[in-house]
Structure formats: structure tokens, C-alpha cells
Design brief:
42% helix, 206 residues, globular, mainly alpha
């Protein structure tokens, strides 16, 4: 008998036994598929909406192969970008800012087309889209206000950006400008803790 098949005796019930671990119907919260279809059509979303909003099944959660998140939990995190679209699209923006919702929406896209929420590729991403993608990743890597991870130093963050550039995910010209003009250092002097501001070997990237 496997660990997942162990049984725990209980006081009530016909059999007198209940599975110690189980996936039950009440563990599953069904997603409104019509709601998902509205998002997909209205905002041109190209994301795989899980059938469930959440699944707290015990065996299901203990069977996660990679990381600590279920498919539903990962989607819930990524879904923030859909709320970004909804909020910005509803604002009466002046003409010069009409492209802002799309730029903000695309900050998780990459040049290979494997990002979200629209799966855009190099030919479809504008220069502002590409700039924000680099800025967003750099800010996320160096942020010190996130309890689930340690803030990275400048050299660590830039190494990660450089690796993503080498894999074709980020724009190499914009990354070079980011390094050459020391934009990273201007940001660091304003917003990072002193221990994060270490020496960056520019020759490795230029």
C-alpha cells in the first residue's frame, strides 16, 4: 500500500474509514468559461485558462512535479496582467497616452513569442514594449520588498538579463544601451540598498 493509499479510521460513516489523502469534488472550484472567452476575445488574450479557478485536492497538490505552485495558482499569478488591461483600458487617456495599455500589457512578453498574455514575437513588439520588458525584469530581480526572495545585487541581476539576451528573449541593442549608459547604476543609486551596489564588469557585456 502506497503512502497516498493509507487510511485513517473515523467515528462516522458506513465504511468506518476515510482516505488520509484525497482529491474531492469540494476541493475544486470551477471557472466560468464564458468569462474566460470574453477576456480572450475582447482583449486578444492568448493564455491557457485552466478549467478550475482553484484545486485544493490533497493528492493533486502533493503531486506537483516542478516548483510549489499548481497550474491554477500559477495562472492566478499571471492573471494580474489581465486586470492591468481592464483597468488601463477603462481610463479616459489623452491621445498621446492611448498606447499605454498595450505597452503595460506587454511587459511579460519576449522576443521568442513565449511570453504572455498575447504571445507576441520580435516583429510584433514595439521598442517601448522591449524597453519595459528589460526594466520590469531588472526591477523585479533587485527589489528588496518581496518576502519570498532575496534581492539580487547589480552584477547578479545583469548576469541574468545578459543570459536572457543570449537566449534571444530580450532585445540586445536595448540591453547594450542599458549597460553602456549605466542606466542600471542611476537606478541603483536612487532605489537600491548599498550592499546591492557591487562592481559590474562592463567588458563582459559590451
Amino acid at each position: 500500500m502506497s503512502n497516498l493509499e493509507l487510511k485513517n479510521k473515523r467515528s462516522k460513516g458506513k465504511s468506518g474509514y476515510e482516505s488520509l489523502l484525497a482529491d474531492k469534488k469540494e476541493h475544486q472550484i470551477i471557472r466560468d468559461r464564458e468569462d474566460a472567452e470574453v477576456f480572450t476575445k475582447q482583449y486578444n488574450i492568448n493564455m491557457n485558462f485552466p478549467d478550475l479557478l482553484s484545486n485544493s485536492g490533497e493528492i493533486y497538490n502533493l503531486s506537483i512535479k516542478y516548483g510549489t505552485l499548481t497550474e491554477e495558482e500559477r495562472f492566478c499569478i499571471n492573471e494580474h496582467i489581465i486586470h492591468t488591461i481592464k483597468m488601463l483600458d477603462a481610463l479616459p487617456l489623452p491621445e498621446e497616452f492611448r498606447g499605454l495599455p498595450d505597452i503595460a500589457t506587454h511587459h511579460h512578453e519576449n522576443l521568442l513569442g513565449s511570453g504572455y498574455p498575447r504571445g507576441l514575437n520580435k516583429q510584433q513588439l514595439s521598442i517601448p514594449d522591449r524597453i519595459l520588458a528589460i526594466a520590469d525584469i531588472f526591477e523585479a530581480l533587485t527589489a528588496s520588498d518581496r518576502p519570498y526572495k532575496r534581492a539580487k545585487t547589480l552584477s547578479e541581476a545583469i548576469d541574468i538579463l545578459a543570459e536572457m539576451v543570449s537566449h534571444g528573449k530580450l532585445d540586445s541593442d536595448i540591453f547594450t544601451l542599458f549597460i553602456k549608459e549605466r542606466i542600471y547604476l542611476d537606478y541603483a543609486n536612487k532605489y537600491l540598498d548599498s550592499y546591492q551596489i557591487d562592481i559590474v564588469d562592463l567588458e563582459r557585456y559590451l
